[in-house]
Write a structure and sequence with these properties.
single chain, 163 residues, alpha/beta, 5-stranded mixed β-barrel, globular
């Protein structure tokens, strides 16, 4: 579960702490297929946070980097993930109108992470665990625990849209 150090309102800059799951192109597509087939992943989606990112190898050695990827490429998966209970999405850049509408209707949040600071974000990760799709390497699904992870709230659950 994610928590923030300030009120979750569009336009606020907050520091997130807690658990999130990474998704990238390949893992998002495969997870969506699983969900469509009625399969459940081995991690909880209800009230979870998804970070559109692929961590680099090196976490165990203290040199991991985890930067956001472009959320617009992941937008097609947002409605299904909301339907399955995901409440928080973290990524980079603007979203198409359909994804924005799905977030507002689903009372979910979209946080924008800053591009170009993957090494800094990597320093905010206290644990990382492979959850699904090991064959995808960095694009697999990882559970990451973060603290003081700075983001900008772009869409909040009260229909507030900042961008």
């Amino acid at each position: 579960m994610i928590s923030a150090d300030k009120e979750l309102k569009a336009g606020n800059i907050v520091n997130l702490s807690g658990e999130m799951f990474t998704l990238r192109d390949n893992s998002a597509k495969k997870l969506a297929a699983m969900l469509e087939n009625g399969e459940n992943p081995n991690f909880p989606l209800e009230n979870s946070a998804v970070f559109f990112a692929a961590p680099t190898p090196g976490f165990e050695e203290g040199r991991a980097s985890i930067g956001p990827t472009t959320s617009a490429r992941m937008a097609a998966f947002i409605p299904k993930l909301i339907e399955k209970g995901v409440k928080y999405f973290i990524g980079k850049g603007a979203l198409p109108e359909a994804a924005k509408n799905a977030l507002v209707e689903g009372k979910a949040f979209y946080f924008q992470a800053l591009g170009g600071i993957g090494a800094y974000y990597g320093s905010k990760v206290s644990s990382m665990e492979l959850m699904l799709f090991e064959e995808f390497g960095p694009e697999a699904v990882y559970k990451v625990e973060v603290s003081d992870f700075p983001v900008i709230i772009s869409i909040d659950s009260d229909s507030g849209i900042f961008f």
